[in-house]
């Protein structure tokens, strides 16, 4: 194999690996800095059982019907902030839809689940196909 062919093949493999790993993917509608710990770029379309239970309580308090999972990992983010994960059936990934969802979910968590978000939080929203729709670093 010629050197130029090997180089082109290697370049194609590296580019493919970067695309498949999600390096070209997540949107950040929050702060300009990236989270200190990278979250997943893809997930399954099934929320864990505990996240499904939180989502049911959220819907009972008037939350968006499309949300079927809200995961809370307290104090595990950078600086001890909570890591929040939302699973939704809503394919609308617009900034306006995200702002409504973010306000609704965080308000519920603070009011009803007594979760303090005063030091900030990290939030990932996964859409119906399990792909990352939004990533927000809401630390001050």
Task: Tell me about this structure.
The chain is α+β, with helices and mostly antiparallel strands. It has 3 helices and 4 strands. Strands 1-2-3-4 form a 4-stranded mixed sheet. The longest helix has 19 residues. The N terminus is likely disordered.
How far apart the termini lie comes to 54 Å
> What's the order of the H and E elements?
HHEEHEE
Number of beta strands? 4
Task: Report low-confidence residues grouped into runs of 5 or more.
Answer: 3-38
pLDDT averaged residue by residue = 79
Give me a quick take on this structure:
Helix content is 34%, strand content 17%.
Layout: helices, strands, pairs:
Blueprint: H1 3-21, H2 49-60, E1 67-73, E2 83-88, H3 95-111, E3 122-126, E4 132-137
Parallel strand pairs: 2-3
Antiparallel strand pairs: 1-2, 3-4
What attributes does this structure have?
17% strand; four-stranded mixed sheet; single chain; disordered N terminus; alpha+beta; globular; 140 residues
